[in-house]
Amino acid sequence: MFTNLQLERYADVLLWGMQKARTKPFKKGDIVLVRFNQRAIKLAELVQIRLIDKGLQTMQRMLATDRMEYNFFSRAENDQLAFIAPGEKEMVKNLNGTIFLNAPESLTHLQTIDSRSITTAMIARKPLRDILTRREENGLFGWTLCSLTTPQLARHARMSQKRYTEQVVKACYLNAKDAVAKWEEIFRNAREIKQWLNSMRITGYHIESARIDLRVGHGLQRRWIGISGHNIPSFELFISPDWRQTEGVFFANQPSYRNGNLVRDVRLEFKNGSVCAVDAAQGREFIQEQVGMDAGAARLGEFSLTDTRFSKIDQFMADTLFDENYGGRYGNSHIALGSSYSDTFRGKPAMLTKKLKQQLGFNDSALHWDLVNTEKKTVTAHLAGGRTQVIYENGRFKV
Predict the structure, then answer these.
(1) What distance in Å separates the CA atoms of residue 32 and residue 10, rounded to the nearest whole number?
(2) What's the CATH number for 4-177?
(3) pLDDT of residue 334
């Protein structure tokens, strides 16, 4: 559904995103892995050409088909679910970058699978993810990802493929004559807002909407980050708060697909930093299973806000990449259950030991699940000294 020119621009923006996301510049000979679904192979070829021309070593890995995934999770025993192939750990220890091209054939092929099987595989692979996190903290690794139109994404979003593609093109600025220059402009504008937020001595936040009444602790040595190249598109600004200071109710009015399951109208109540009650119009049992995945799955790993002036996304896309960056009329706020982002640490992330992360209230989990609210809301920052300041209202930062 994309024109050749749009795909060329997509490849350019992805390379920009991966390079922007890494704190140290790439050098000749660095190793980059391109992971992609079968439907994304044309874009994968364009990305590969750009990586080769940059003097980088490239690896390509096409992901398992939906049938392969179903076969694996429906038939594998525990030792097979937890299996890590020889060489996999060595590979991630040497990776300098990854680009993921998401083009799913199905969103629901795993809906009949026991979620415990998927959890077993996720927990087994968490040490590999931890290696990449540590490499990123040391400036040795950068990543980005994107999504393309597929019939199933369009169907679940209740759009034609043509309309869905138009949304992606609009969201990623693929009709701009110089798409990379447009993303650089967004990057600069977002930097001004982050500097404003990070100049305040914030201790916590109060998020209020028709169905949200949530208090989130800012945490010590934190900074707001976002629009860093990690996701294409990405318009959110966020922190990884001190999970221990989370109290109240969050409501996700936007649906979410995860592991083949659709959840709608999710209500989470937090007490003493953890989810103490779960309700939903659909998927309540699945949510409870996810929250119980490990000790950190019921805790907050991220608090995020999207300014409607940046994001052109105004439709539900049935893909978290787009949905967590929803602009629409009132922007969005989303939280993530599970793992934190160490690059929200105000100092050098490489300084963050496991013990220091625990002391500062950075959450750790095999889970990271974004749940989104698009209602009209007000976010009030509580400042050191007792003052308060509204920082976000009617979908915009109050800078």
Answers:
(1) 17
(2) 3.40.1830.10
(3) 97
